[in-house]
Each structure stands twice: as structure tokens, then as C-alpha cells.
Amino acid sequence: MSRMDVNRSGEMEVFVRAVALGGFSAAARELRLTPSAVSKLVTRLETRLGARLVNRTTRRLELTPEGVIFHDRAQRILADIEEAERSAAQADLPVGRIRINTSASYGTHILAPILPGFLSRYPGVSVEIVQTDRVVDLLAERADIAIRAGELASSSLVARRLGETELVVVAAPACLDALGRPETLAGISRLNRLSFTYTRSSDDWRLVQDGVEQSVKARSTLQANDGEALRYFAISGAGMTRLAYFTVRADIEAGRLARVAPGRMVKVTEAFHAVYVGQGGLMPARVRVMLDYLAEFGRVE
Prior knowledge:
Elements: H1 8-21, H2 24-31, H3 35-49, E1 54-56, E2 61-63, H4 65-89, E3 96-102, H5 104-121, E4 125-131, E5 145-149, E6 158-171, H6 173-178, H7 185-188, E7 193-196, E8 206-209, E9 212-215, E10 220-224, H8 227-235, E11 241-244, H9 245-254, E12 258-259, E13 268-276, H10 285-297
Parallel strand pairs: 3-4, 3-5, 7-10
Antiparallel strand pairs: 1-2, 5-13, 6-11, 6-12, 6-13, 8-9
């Protein structure tokens, strides 16, 4: 404690320690101040409060009725300050809740399989998942981390890249068989297109026909706001949709879905990032370990 920089909490601490130790001299030794400095601080506190807090005797300090009340409240305030500082210091430990904002597709196919391992590794951490495909304001949504697909607009947020995946056009095999597994724009346009309700940067599906890239024109008969809904609609035979490969790989291998014109669709990839608030380079350990875990186990391909 500096003689030149003693704020209100500092005055409280001097007063409480003087009472606990029974005198100004003992408090001065513990706080590395002179007895006269301790006396002046207590006097200044009394002057500001407009009340005498202690009756000074040659042997010990006696609290006045006002001093008893103030001493009790000062002890509680100092305890609260100590607890606040201890809680803040625990930011260096992986404890507490992590709120992750993610798409249903990433949550289902990537997070679900790896989260048990994370929770086992860090038992002091709990995870809250909020699923949405829309871009959110991390601060407004009280999110620690958001998983975002596509190119990132420049912002004050910091991103950890989680790889990239190909976007593939798929449909139920029965739908394709009914049209003879179409390879041309005319044939593909007869399939219903299942699309997202919001605008995506890669909404233009393109197919190479006669050596020229051309846009796939198909009527959008069904829309949904997340990829998992579109995946289920496609499996049920409602039409064709374009989704991240990692979300439909198992369906393709199991024969629930098939790629539409796989040799002719123009290849499009989409990057994935874990986006977080990293102001000033400070980051709670709970967030840091999750980002490290996602970088190791949560990558897409």
C-alpha cells in the first residue's frame, strides 16, 4: 500500500486492520506505514464521514457506536472486493461456462461427437450450445465463440480457421433415378431445389455444359433456415440441395443421398472459422482451451 495512493477501500483496510490489531502502531507495522500515517488516514476517514469511529486510548482503540456499524460494513465490502479479485484471477483456470453459437449442421456432425471428450478433459467447464445459421453479434448474444461458414467480413473479432469443405449438390437416389440421373441443365432443372431462407455468398450453383459454366436454374419449392432441415428434406425425396460435404458424407456412403452430376458441377468450397472476442489479447482459459480443442478435433473437410 502506497502512502501517496490510498483510496476509499484503502482507508477501510487501514481502519479494519487497526481495529483487528488493537492499535495504530500494530497496523502500521503490518501495512508498512508509519503510526502517524495510519492515524492521519483514520482521521481523514472520520472527517469525510462526519462521525468519530474510534475513541483513542493509550492502550487500545475503542469503537464508537458509529464505528461498530461502519466496521461491520467495511469488513463485508473488503471481503466482496477480495472475492471479486479471486474470481477474476480464476480466468487463468479452465472453469466456468462457454456459450457457443453454431449452425445445426456443425453442432450435429462435428461438435456432438467431440464434446464428451472435451468435458472429460476439463471437468470444471460447462458448455451451452445455441444453434442458428444466421450471423450473430457475439456481444449481444452473450456468446463466447461462434462457428461461422464462408468468408469473414473484416471486423474487430478474431478468428481461428477450422479448415474448409466442399459444397456438394445431393438428392435422394430415387429422385435421380426417376429422371435417369440427369447430367444436363435441362434434366437437373426438373428437380425441385431445396434452399436456405437467407442469402448465402455461394447461392449460384454452376454446371459445366458444352465446355461452358452455366447457372443451374431450378425452382425452389422448399426453404429452411438450417442445413440439417434441408438434409432431412433431401433424404425424404423432396428435391435436391447443396450442403457441406461433411454433413452428407455418411448419407452418401449409406446410399441415402447421391451427388447430382458429380463430374460436372463446378467445385465450390467453404471455409469454417471459430470466431471470438479477443480484445487486448486477454482471453479466459475456458475459451482458450475450447478454441485449441476445436482446432485439433473440430476441423471440417
